[in-house]
Records
---
Amino acid sequence: MIKVGFCVSYDWEMLKRSLPRVYAHADRICFSLDKNRASWNRQHYTFDEVAFATWLAQADPDKKVDLYEDDFSIDGLSPMQNDSRQRMLMAQRLGEGGWHVQVDSDEYFLDFGSFTRQLKKINPNPTGREKPINVCVCWVPLIRRVPNGYIYVDFKDQVPEVVPVATTLPQYERARHSGHFNILTSHYVIHETWARSEDELWFKMNNWGHVGDELVERNARQSYYNLWKVLDEYNYQYLSNFHPAQATVWPTLGFCPGKSVEEFMENYKPPVFPLSPLRLAMRNNRNVARIKALYSKLFS
């Protein structure tokens, strides 16, 4: 069984792109939405209730979506703790067993059907009692929308930024991350992370789960935001190491034409995955990982 969870918030309209890309291949779907319409940083946001309800009724013809409203903005918890807590409560709502997949509203799978087929090859029906694993995908982060297209992170011949989206046992410690062994796949997901309006990005930078550990100081956020605002389709090539927390995670920037995200996805050609099948198999082998960890510990 494929169980898909979405954290729904102020940017819910991005679900109009992300939900259809997974809907047909999901057995159960959960939307978790703060009942007070507050962010993980306890800031209230506007939310068009009528538009959301109208869209959801149209977008869920098979009645797969469970709308789960609860208090996900707890005073006394950090934004990241609220983030992780919401994901755990949503996983509990979906119940034990099966593949638990969490996709954020601004993430668009290029081929979710192929991804779910790979999950089922790994384990056709997880019970939650096996030795747990996570399965990771490759992000293609969109940085800024400009008049003629999108500036995005170009990883060249490097392994892209990866994120665990599926697990046999949800035990989220930091957003979707846990201590389970991570299996890497060559599946790509477009991540509309920074490609928002100026107001939307500023709100995100001050309210997302990472606000407590990335660009913590307001002056740092303001400086990064000011740099982002001047990016265009001509000067992007002069910037490198752009990630706000660990600069080298986003090594270079690229440009792809497209008047909308949909057009970008039509025009964008995912790079050849940088690891050969053999190297990927070695990367995903627990025993090899243990030997590497032991070697590193002995000779560090």
---
Amino acid sequence: MSPVRVLVVDDSATMRGLISLALRRDPEIEVVGTASNPMTARDAIKAHNPDVITLDVEMPGMNGLEFLEKIVRLRPMPVIMVSNLTGEGTETAIEAMQIGAVDCIAKPQPGDVQPFAELPGKVKAAAGVRVRPRAAGTAAESKSSATGERRRPMLASYEPDGRVIAIGSSTGGVEALSTLIAQLPENCPPIMIVQHMPPDFTASLATRLDRLYAPKVVEAKDGMPIEVGHVYIAPGGPKHLELQDRSGLRCHLVGGGPVNGHSPSADVLFKSVAQTVKGDAIGIILTGMGRDGAQGLLEMRDAGARTIGQDEASSLIYGMPRAAFEIGAVERQLPLDRIANAALVMTNLRGRQGREN
């Protein structure tokens, strides 16, 4: 197979060199060019026709977001954002992934032994992504309308039945989670999420989703109680998010090393949900590379929980949902835009009471 052709865009010569060096160590990747700003990058795209672009978030003249919007509109291709671990940088990277970037990676910090060690894997995964035009305005929806009214629930009459929703996602997950959470009412069931992201990015993701949509979205903290209308995102880093019954359902952050190459891991979350609440849960697995979450979702289904997998057509990368589907962990396979409604129907107390009466 031909190597993956990559264009590196960053205003720092040092960063261009580090990124290029990390990528050239992989024989399946070819760095076809570099650019210091969007203007020269535009010419390099025309000249080299890359398969993937790595794009700096903050650049003079035209920042990464503005350039990304032009790429998505004029020449859609896989883009990986390269960001500083600062509030502004991570917030912009999250916005970029909602616009259409495939993934993000943090710039190295002082003392990093292997800068950009994860980048070759991300680039090769991105090369297999089918980049589709994004619907205008999806990332700009607000928690309240111009009149100050909350978003209306998708169901005419919704009341949560006490069950918990657990979600696992990876590459493409920021866009998928945005689409899903945008369709939830303010009184949605409690939702726990593992999204594979670097440390610090998950806090920015939670802040942005909380600002845009009706439920209360937070980065999970150890001991935080599980409440209706709240979405808990596992913090990126060395610990896993679990559901624990400790005088009431709570978030529990636990160490133990990567599982399936990830920390936090969707498998760890799903397995804890299966053990803690058994059938009183809904498990959802979304777009992502690899197998993380498949076995845990199967344990949820075996414990009596309902399970949903994102279908291939709507997945940016159909790795995690495929792995779960192939082992029988997925009860229903649905396109992304139907998953939220399906989960609400499954957890609607009024609908359940109607069926029982």
---
Amino acid sequence: MASVVGAIVATLITVPYIVFFLVNKSMLKVTKKRRKAFKAGVDSTTLFLFFAIERMTVEIWGHSYYWILILVFLFGCLLFTYVIWKNDVELSIGKILRLNWRLHFLVLSIGYFSLMTYGIISRILDI
């Protein structure tokens, strides 16, 4: 049983967009709201993208650069805090984290596809 769960989690980390499609379709069936379903899919996929990029860097270069992902996340929080503080009256931690989390979906998606392309090309050229 543990090996089945491990295989499922490994698949979801390897291909995080499966999580996006599963959550998006199930939320769309439950709520009938496309925007809410899309946001739920993005929010759940971001966590899997963090793990996927960390695993890809270990496979490609042999080292974990997870600390860079954490620094980029913290820098995004600082950036959103400054922007909201300058433009808004109310400074909400939840709003900052939500905006940063969704921005990181975009950043991590670009990183995921870039690392995937780099990894495939480097494996082909090594042969």
---
Amino acid sequence: MSEPMSVGSSALEPPMPSSASSTEPKHGGFTRFELELEFVQSLANPQYLNHLASRKLLTNPSFVAYLDYLQYWSRPPYLKYLTYPGPTLKSLQLLQEERFRQDIISPDLVQALMTEGMKAAVEWHKEG
């Protein structure tokens, strides 16, 4: 997975969900909405979070500001576009905490989060 586009400021307005707009600029053939959706959903993967930490992105103030900006995905109308809103939003929330951004470098924490996710999936299927 590629790294997200650079935003640089949390004052930017979130992109419009309607990615069909012909006036919206494309980045590699994709709209900003599509790129941010793909990136925010990738945050549900603990191994990807570990990758970001190993690249020292989680200590970069601009990247941390970008993570804060992405919290708009927790609100309508954006929320409905998330495939796995529970894990995605949980990770996005945890990434707001400096301690978590430091600790996710640990393979033990990555494994614990992966195990927790698998248990949650099993429980969800039992209830259904």
